[in-house]
Design a protein that fits this description.
4-stranded mixed sheet; 12% strand; 450 residues; 17 helices; single chain; globular; Cytochrome p450; alpha+beta
């Protein structure tokens, strides 16, 4: 039972508010029902709990019994900027089993900072700017195959575009390796999203079991990745290559040791699985939102065709506000209880910062249900009121990459086609364990531009 205890205070200081031991009030349904609701009715369940309990409430999920959801920017800032020794993001993360033990999403403290220093440079500066042409070419090749004049799902073509973009610019994949990975990656992602949160299902019961199928698909991908690493090291023009893998095989830690093949492999898997799904979802959500907001669509189309980018950047930001693709930025309490929002949370409690709640707070965003990119041209929200890429030292390193890719694809799409407005009802949120995408696939109707 929660017990209120006074906090320490300096002599002469005003009395501090009492702190409650344990978790805040929250969802009372059986743990199994909460877990099912989290997977199949995530947004409605979160919004009902938020309406009842406020900006901080608890849940109990299978495999993660002590879970606290927060949506207040001050609580989010405290959580995402906390001492990394007190709150971990990687320890116990279900992503570690899928992406590898060295994944940037599965490590903490000093080892995380060392890996992050190595991985940050490729996603900034001239190296990344050089990718824009490749993104446009890849988009054109995919759009050449589109059926026009009738409604089509966009999530799958967007996934093909973003996957190939990552395979070419980050992996340096080509020819046979490119074709093999384009075949294998969607299969491994499909299986992974079904079992990533179901730890009891992560057992190899043979090739027909979900986890057994995942492991065998991942082994095939590993063989290709290790082959690409060997090829890169033997390339006499390695120093002139622009793909990220070419940088990683040359990179060294602070003590001068090279990154191991397993380290490189885990980071590449992270970029591949985490990167292409989220950006593809954002592109499909943009189609879904634009087709239902004809004034925004017309303004963006004119702006893009005039060669401007400011409004396109605002559309990117607004799409991620109103339809964030990542469900939670999670931290877990380490070593000793952690005080947050008037509660002393037990060790191993998970704290999830929820953008889908924060971004719809009318105190933070005027008319939050309205798709209005202009709000990002008028002023910028605080870093912790707008959190599509997380925050603090663990903010997504691929944010600029995602923006550039989004812009390149949207520019080609709107330059080649007229996207038709629709009066159809909005598409539901589709939840894939970690990410959101349009529930009907981001349907759009495209007419070739005359």
């Amino acid at each position: 039972m929660a017990v209120e205890t006074p906090t320490k205070q300096a002599a002469g200081a005003a009395p501090s508010a009492p702190v409650t031991e344990g978790l805040p009030p929250g969802v009372r349904m059986p743990q199994s029902i909460q877990s099912i609701g989290f997977l199949v009715r995530n947004i409605p369940m979160m919004r009902r709990a938020h309406a009842k309990y406020g900006d901080m409430f608890s849940m109990k999920l299978l495999g993660f019994p002590d879970f606290v959801i927060i949506s207040d920017p001050d609580l989010i800032k405290q959580t995402l900027t906390a001492d990394p020794k007190r709150l971990h993001a990687g320890t116990g993360s279900p992503l570690g089993a899928v992406l590898g033990a060295n994944s940037l999403l599965a490590i903490d403290e000093d080892i995380h900072l060392r890996q992050r220093r190595i991985l940050l440079p490729p996603f900034h500066g001239e190296r990344m700017q050089s990718y824009a042409g490749a993104f446009a070419q890849i988009a054109d090749e995919e759009m050449d195959t589109w059926t026009t004049g009738e409604p089509m799902r966009t999530i799958e073509p967007m996934q093909r575009i973003t996957l190939r973009a990552i395979l070419q610019t980050i992996f340096g994949a080509h020819d046979e390796s490119l074709e093999q990975l384009e075949d294998l990656v969607p299969k491994v992602v499909d299986v992974a999203t079904k079992v990533v949160l179901l730890r009891f299902a992560q057992k190899d019961l043979g090739p027909r079991s979900p986890w057994g199928r995942f492991l065998r698909l991942r082994d095939q991908i590993d063989a290709i990745l290790y082959g690409l690493m060997d090829e890169a090291r033997r390339d006499p023009d390695l120093a002139d290559r622009t793909d990220v893998m070419s940088l990683l095989v040359q990179a060294t830690h602070e003590d001068g040791t090279a990154m191991s093949d397993v380290e490189i492999r885990d980071q590449l898997m992270t970029m591949m699985i985490a990167g292409h799904e989220t950006t593809a979802g954002t592109l499909s959500w943009a189609v879904e939102r634009l087709s239902r907001n004809p004034e925004v669509l017309a303004k963006l189309t004119d702006s893009v065709r005039a060669g401007e980018t400011d409004y396109l950047n605002a559309v990117f930001d607004e799409t991620l506000r109103i339809r964030p693709t990542v469900s939670l930025a999670v931290r877990s309490v380490q070593k000793e209880p952690y005080e947050l929002g008037g509660y002393r949370l037990p060790v191993e409690t998970r704290i999830g910062s929820n953008p889908a709640l924060t971004h719809f707070d009318p105190n933070l965003f005027d008319n939050p249900t309205e798709f209005r990119p202009e709000r990002f041209l008028e002023s910028r929200p605080s870093n912790y009121a707008y959190i599509p890429f997380g925050g603090g030292v663990r903010r997504c390193i691929g944010a600029a990459f995602a923006r550039m890719e989004f812009n390149a694809v949207m520019e080609r799409m709107l330059d080649r086609f007229d996207l038709q407005p629709t009066d159809a009802r909005f598409e539901p949120w589709g939840f894939r364990s970690i990410t959101f995408a349009p529930g009907n696939g981001g349907i759009g109707t495209f007419i070739p531009r005359s």
